[in-house]
Amino acid sequence: MKDRTATQATGSATTREAPLVMEPSHPDDGADVPAGTTARGATIPDSLALRVDQMFPTLTPAEIGRLRRFGTIKTWQPGALLFESGKAGPGMIILLRGRVAVTRKNALSRDTPIIEHTTGQFMAEVGQLSGRPALVDARALDGVEALLIDPPSLRALVIAEAELGERVMRALILRRVGLIETGAGGPVLIGAPGNADLMRLQGFLSRNGHPYTVIDPATDPAAGEIMKLHAPRPAELPLVVCPDGTVMKCPAEQELARRLGMYPALSPEHVYDVAIVGAGPAGLASAVYAASEGLSVLVLDARVVGGQAGASSRIENYLGFPTGISGQALAGRAFVQAQKFGADVAVPVAVTRIDCTTSPLGLYLDCGTRLCAQTVVIASGASYRHPAIPGLSRYEGRGVYARESRESRALADTRTRSGQKHGTIPR
């Protein structure tokens, strides 16, 4: 795949990359409502204000009747939590009676309203396809009766009910986009703009489609108080305040992923039909094809969803996208599609060894776990050539990007023939 990659370093610690989960390519059909608090009472980002009816559709009694076979009826008393940020999500909840307030916590743990759901509306976002932790809180305002559809049944619903499934999937994706843009339900990163480890964690969360918020302790009093309380050394920055209140000091990606519940439950006793090593375009395509045939599928990647292709700002020669598509958008669509069919995706997890002498095959992970699979697909991809610049490895993955064009290659060849040396990075 040919790609064009960004040519400059990220300018600000608060700059967001395009969200991993991208908006579906449907025309806008929402009412023309102002940004912020909409005519439906929902508080959403300005960029999604015209799509409020797609984000929060109301199902008719006939449509709810078609979905009853996928769930069970449950009731909640006034004031009860239907689900809570940071805890395992129950799936999708369709209101049959009552009202539910959905809120998100900001960096100071104060509740900010998102929407008040009423009869016929449903609560879920794309993470509930795989039962990941909820990113928002939902509390019953009065007695609530609802249809609860657990994650496996939700995946069955979006496949079996074509028209309704499309509307539900569109709403789930748009809701995750809104959460990413507001940072709702995600960790708070506290550090100075330009800090290398801050940018490392931002890139990890962005490319895995997880919300987060960045606060500069030099300008935010609340962040300053947290810094005083935990007194981190320079090497311990940034601080990461997780939704459950845990404060981590400059964590590795694996540590942060485990704390945020980004890993599926991996059982050594379970035998997967297919295990795929590598979550780039080829690995995700394999996952979609295998899972859509009803196979039990696990995808493992040592870094992020999308692999190296996910870092490309534009891929021009990928089949089906004549105007091109960013690597992150391509990876995001494939990731959601794999979740739709029930594939488990574990990132970042490295496979250190594959034992081919046993049946089923054994996969040894860097966390010490041994998993079993009938078939293993190795889609680990290729490694790009790196410029021969001393000290370059210290800057990789820390907001520094490079692009080799025909012009730069020709200039390098000219300099080589004339005896000129390439540049060096100061030590």
- Largest beta-sheet characterization: 6 strands, mixed
Remind me, CATH topology of the largest domain?
Jelly Rolls
- Low confidence ranges: 1-39, 421-427
Distance between the termini: 34 Å
Strand order of the largest sheet: 19-17-16-22-21-20
In quaternary terms, these chains amount to: single chain
Q: What's the pLDDT, averaged over the residues?
A: 84
* Domain module count: 4
CATH architecture of the largest domain: Sandwich
**Main structural class:** alpha+beta
Strand content: 15-25%
Helix share bin: 25-40%
Give a count of the beta strands, DSSP E runs of length 2 or more: 22
Q: What is the CATH C level class of the largest domain, in words?
A: Mainly Beta
Describe this protein's structure.
This protein is of the alpha+beta class and 427 residues long. The protein folds into four domains: 36-182, Sandwich (Jelly Rolls), CATH 2.60.120; 186-253, Glutaredoxin; 271-378, FAD/NAD(P)-binding domain; 387-427, no CATH class. The protein has ten helices and 22 strands. The chain has a six-stranded mixed sheet with strand order 19-17-16-22-21-20, covered by helices on one side. Helix 3 packs across helix 4 (162-182). The two termini are 34 Å apart. The model is unreliable at 1-39 and 421-427 (pLDDT under 50).
Topology:
Elements: E1 3-4, E2 36-37, E3 43-44, H1 52-55, H2 61-67, E4 72-76, E5 81-83, E6 92-97, E7 100-105, E8 111-117, E9 122-123, E10 137-140, E11 144-149, H3 151-160, H4 162-182, E12 188-190, H5 196-207, E13 213-215, H6 221-230, E14 239-241, E15 247-249, H7 253-259, E16 271-277, H8 281-292, E17 297-300, E18 314-315, H9 327-340, E19 344-346, E20 351-355, E21 361-365, E22 370-378, H10 406-418
Parallel strand pairs: 12-13, 16-17, 16-22, 17-19
Antiparallel strand pairs: 1-18, 2-3, 4-11, 5-10, 6-9, 6-11, 7-8, 7-10, 12-14, 14-15, 20-21, 21-22
